[in-house]
Amino acid sequence: MVDDDEAASRDDAADRERGRQDEGGRLSFSLPPIRLPPLFPEDFRLLWPAPGEGPRRRVSKRVVLAALVVFDLADAALALTADAGAVAGVRVVGGALVAATTFGALGTVYVWEAVAALAGFGELTVVPTLSALFVVHSLREVF
């Protein structure tokens, strides 16, 4: 009786080594756990501004406003001069990224420019949305 149990356990171990068929009739394999080396050092930091832990040096509101006004001016110039769909797509994606990183959830208002561009009303996107979002964000901080 003991010999039968030992033989069965040896057969089970051999089946696990070679791969065995499960109840569904499919061949299955089991692998030992794999540990990957760490991909990034512990002190790795993202350079792109993201919500959460912010930079140690704060940027002044004037610099942010100036950058947003420059972006809005370039966006308006492209909206009036370039009529290609690819240019509108790049403008909308770029503006959405800037709005999301600068204003967080409030930046989702920028989606209206994507809707206007997709609907064929590209001229409406001349509106300085990022500058208006800055004003709204500033007013929210005051009140």
Structure explained in plain terms:
The chain crosses the membrane at residues 63-82, 88-111, 118-139. Residues 7-25 have a biased composition (Basic and acidic residues). Keywords: Membrane, Transmembrane, Transmembrane helix. Residues 1-30 are annotated as: Disordered. The protein has a domain at 61-142. The chain contains five helices and two strands. By secondary structure, it is mostly helical. 55% of the residues lie in helices and 3% in strands. The protein is extended, with a radius of gyration of 29 Å. Helix 2 packs antiparallel against helix 5. The protein has helices at 2-18, 61-81, 85-103, 111-118, 129-142, and strands at 20-21, 27-28.
What separation lies between the terminal Cα atoms?
A: 84 Å
Strand content: under 5%
Along the chain, the helix and strand elements come as HEEHHHH
Structural class: mainly alpha
Overall mean confidence score, pLDDT? 78
Query: What is the number of strand segments?
Result: 2
Largest sheet features? 2 strands, antiparallel
- The largest beta-sheet arranges its strands as 1-2
Total number of helices: 5
Low-confidence stretches: none
- Helical coverage, percent range: 55-70%
The geometry reads as extended
Radius of gyration: 29 Å
Topology record:
Elements: H1 2-18, E1 20-21, E2 27-28, H2 61-81, H3 85-103, H4 111-118, H5 129-142
Antiparallel strand pairs: 1-2
